[in-house]
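Risk mitigation, structural track. In case the binding assays with thymidine-5'-diphosphate fail to produce interpretable data, a predicted complex structure has been prepared as a fallback.
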Amino acid sequence: MKKFLNLGSQPLANSYLTANNLNKSEKKFKLEVGFDKKNYLVSILNTVPKEKMFNKDYPYKSSESHTMRNSFKIFSKKIKRKFKPETILEIGSNDGAFIKNFNKKKVIGVEPCKNLANITKKLGFKIFSEYWNISLARKIASKNKIDLIYSANTLSHIKDISEIFKAIKICLNDKGVLILEDPSLLECIKKVAYDQFYCEHIYVFSTIALQKILNQFDLIIFDIENTRTHGGSNRYFIKKKNNESYKISNQVKKNIILEKKGGLDKFSTYKKFAKKVEKSKNQLKQIFNQLKRKNKKIIGYGATAKSCTVLNYCKINSNDIKFFYDTTSYKINKYLPGSKIKIKRYKKLSRSDADYVFLGAWNFKDEIFKKEKNFLKRGGKFITHIPQPKII
Ligand code: TYD
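Fallback model:
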């Protein structure tokens, strides 16, 4: 693994501070990103123990976003139509945004964050509140082999890739389908979205990397959909190699060609990316400094984990952004880690709130701009760093 990017010393992205611990020193770790020439894998170099990140205080809830709820709803209809699974397993079921679309008797969730697992348990779903591993897979497989395993934005959080896929193979029926959905490395590189890297995102996958890894476990990608969630994701459809039920679609070849054209198999691409990241930091700082000189009022929108990387890397703090609005109840009246910017309960933006709004949740830009069209109409502006720092 060869390092190409240094995003500085960072706090844990989802460890929001309370007023009581605001002045205590925060745990920090070195956020560096590297590329492995052998399997094309891009990953952060220093990882944080999973128990420190995924526990009973996990703040992120998929169901709180209209975009995510809708995306899961549409996709689950497609799954039923296309694969007709009798048994479904979701790894990282969060607060149930995906599994709620299925019959309780057919679906099993795995969710180690107990606060989230309890939400779906209370609704009567079968949930294992454990980390995904081989012993859990054996426990599940002893009762049911699974026709369809789905995991969105979760496998990139698990360090031991080999354990992930060994466990999946234990549970998956020979004719079964595995569907993985994660941010696309190609989109991340194209958009200079360096904030896809934070403590929880150990990996940002590409097709070429995933293909190499899956090959070691006799698994193969047979189709890919490029989706718009989380700033551009890939949805990989995977089967056991000896399963003849699905032909390899042209989409697989197309994605591989695009990724190679984008240089994802070459270290030099990542070095270039690192240069762009540094430029992005300088430009974003410049925008903030100019607006501050003009005494403009700036707030933030969407206190995301991604924002944590940006704010701490660019050294933007409460002198620059007065506060953040966020819809997640857990985050309200807390403070963003590192930058210590206060988070307030979301209310529709009005011009008296701010002149400029930093778009922390840039991946929901369309949803947010639609919601805030009056603010925009009245001359309110947004600041974004994607794909390059600018005012909209
Ligand atoms: P998200 O970008 O999904 O994740 P991450 O934390 O992994 O980077 O988080 C979206 C955050 O933005 C979440 O805290 C909710 C907030 N949000 C709003 O406050 N308003 C909105 O309209 C939307 C779409 C999100």
